[in-house]
Amino acid sequence: MRLEPQRGSQYDARIFGVGLVSDRDGNAALRGGRLSPQAYAENFADAHLPLTPNQASIESDRCYFCYDAPCVKACPTQIDVPSFIRNIATGNIKGAAHDILEQNIMGAVCARVCPTEVLCEGACVRNDPEQKPVAIGALQRHATDWLFDRHVQLFERAPATGKRVGVVGGGPAGLSCAHRLAMLGHEVTVFDAHDKLGGLNEYGVAAYKVTSQIAQREVAYLLEIGGIEPKLGVRLGRDISLSRLRGDFDAVFLGIGVGGVNALGIDEPKLAGVFDAIGYIEMLRQADDLSQLPVGRSVVVIGGGMTAIDIASQVKRLGAEDVTIVYRRGPYDMGASNKEQAWAQTSGVRIKHWARPLRLLGRDGALTAVEFTRTQSDAQLAEDDASENFIVAADMLFKAIGQRLIKEDLDGNANVLEMNAGRIAVDAQRKTSVPGVWAGGDCVAGGKDLTVVAVEDGKRAALSIDRHLRQQSKTGAHNG
Ligand SMILES: Cc1cc2nc3c(=O)[nH]c(=O)nc-3n(C[C@H](O)[C@H](O)[C@H](O)COP(=O)(O)OP(=O)(O)OC[C@H]3O[C@@H](n4cnc5c(N)ncnc54)[C@H](O)[C@@H]3O)c2cc1C
Ligand code: SF4
User: Is the CB of 113 under 6 A from ligand 1?
Assistant: First the structure.
């Protein structure tokens, strides 16, 4: 990563809807153009280089092709990992890609974003202190990139069933569901509030893991199967209602993610420089020119999950001088894996554990610092001991303390849909409590908020919907 002395233009406050912030010297503290064009390009380049064919061949030979392989069980989509690696080893890259995509249609993005260290690679039998696990994610990327680079379509639709399914949300859960349903011969309409499909692959995940080009390449591949009609810029709860969808379609799948941002739980005076991490990341992912993004000198991020790691690493890469993540518990309690934490630290981010915010401090309407109190142990979380408080100077603060389901989107049906811990309750088949309505991905209870889990949810729901619709055809029943 390349960081350079600050220089360049002020960001356009009109574009980003926030006021400029002045530091002690009277300089604008939030501004873009802190780095050279070359530094932006280097800092946001693909974080991991792809394997060369030779490297892929050598790496595939390291696999023991275990019987009852633990990596298969550890993959939420149960990709037959030994089979796809054996195919790479024997030069059958198309066969390898088929093994991957038949289980996980978003295998190309998952190869880049899965926390493999806690999933498939974490379970690899070669994972001991003396050796490294087989690089399953990198091999998966090798096979799927080979396929996409050659525009090879592996899937086709079954004969039309005449059944229609409404899918709300075009993220990994919704798209995976839509693709499987289309394969099985159903007609699918995908409604999404954004003007592009892809969900957080397009608007959320760090730019150095997945570019828009990779996300949209996958969307195009998925849609190529036919039978999927996207309706973009359409919001459930505003433009359409769940009750209407239930009337218009034979089945409905909800994959609306968790778009609401949790509050800090303290008084939040309106200060320029305070951002919600998700909103900023969306802006970053859609920016044509990274030098236009406002960046502070001293940045504080509050949170402990992947969003906190991503915003901290990216704002550092945009040229912030000091970036500190503050998390209220210890390193092992963080939602982000050890590898993710190490990644942020090697990007120059400081992680401070066992502290929570007490007060936002400001001057002339702009953030200047955040006061924290220490939270040494669970027993002390509720204690306010002023002697343990400390202040971190900050001209920019990101709230990254988790997201929540926006219940208003469910237009009153939140009262009908059974909820669990603020998310939609589903059974093992991803059926909700409302007949004819399935749900999956981040919006359902009990998930792990990972792309690969959302893809599996969508797939499972599609298979369950398919069984239901075929049964319905036999019995002539509706919305069971
Ligand atoms: C910053 C960040 C970084 C992440 N990094 C990783 C990572 O590295 N690896 C990983 O595995 N996971 C990561 N995740 C988690 C992963 O992105 C999610 O688990 C995954 O995208 C969930 O898919 P989904 O389809 O359920 O929801 P989403 O991807 O959120 O898609 C939901 C879709 O529904 C649409 N929508 C929402 N409300 C409505 C409505 N009312 N009407 C119509 N459409 C609506 C949205 O526009 C969106 O397209 C990250 C998440 C964040 C926030
Ligand atoms: S989808 Fe993710 S967890 Fe599954 S095998 Fe591929 S990289 Fe591993």
Answer: yes
Q: Say if residues 434 and 235 touch (Cβ distance below 8 Å).
A: no
Inter-residue contact 434 to 413 (CB < 8 Å) = yes
Q: How many angstroms separate the Cα of 349 from the Cα of each of 1, 273, 322?
A: 13, 19, 7
Distance CA 19, CA 290 (A): 19
pLDDT digits (tens, 9 = 90+) for 192-212: 999 999 999 999 999 889 988
Q: What distance in Å separates the CA atoms of residue 262 and residue 278, rounded to the nearest whole number?
A: 11
Give the SS3 label for residue 303. coil
Residue-wise pLDDT for 341-378, tens only, equals 999 999 999 999 999 999 999 999 999 999 999 987 54
Which ligand has its closest atom nearest to the C-alpha of 450?
Answer: 1
Which ligand places an atom closest to the C-alpha of 108? Answer: 2
The secondary structure of residue 125, as a DSSP letter, is T
C-alpha–C-alpha distance, residues 146 and 144, integer Å: 5
Test site for ligand 1: of 109, 190, 191, 205, most ligand atoms within 8 A of the Cβ: 205
Pairing of strands 366-374, 355-363: antiparallel
Residue 59, ligand 1, Cβ within 6 A: no
> Does 428 have pLDDT greater than 80?
yes
Other C-beta atoms within 10 Å of 228: how many? 23
Q: How far is Cα 44 from Cα 190, in angstroms, rounded to an integer?
A: 31
Q: Is the CB of 469 under 6 A from ligand 1?
A: no
Q: Could you report the per-residue pLDDT of 160-191, keeping only the tens digit for each?
A: 999 999 999 999 999 999 999 999 999 999 99
Cα of 204 from ligand 1 centre, angstroms: 7
Identify which ligand lies nearest to the alpha carbon of 121.
Answer: 2
Q: Are 344 and 370 in contact (CB under 8 A)?
A: no
111 lines ligand 2 (CB under 6 A): yes
103 lines ligand 2 (CB under 6 A): no
Smallest CA separation from ligand 2 atom 4, residue:
75
Report the atom number in ligand 2 closest to the C-alpha of 104. 1
Helices (H), 61-106: 70-74, 81-89, 93-103
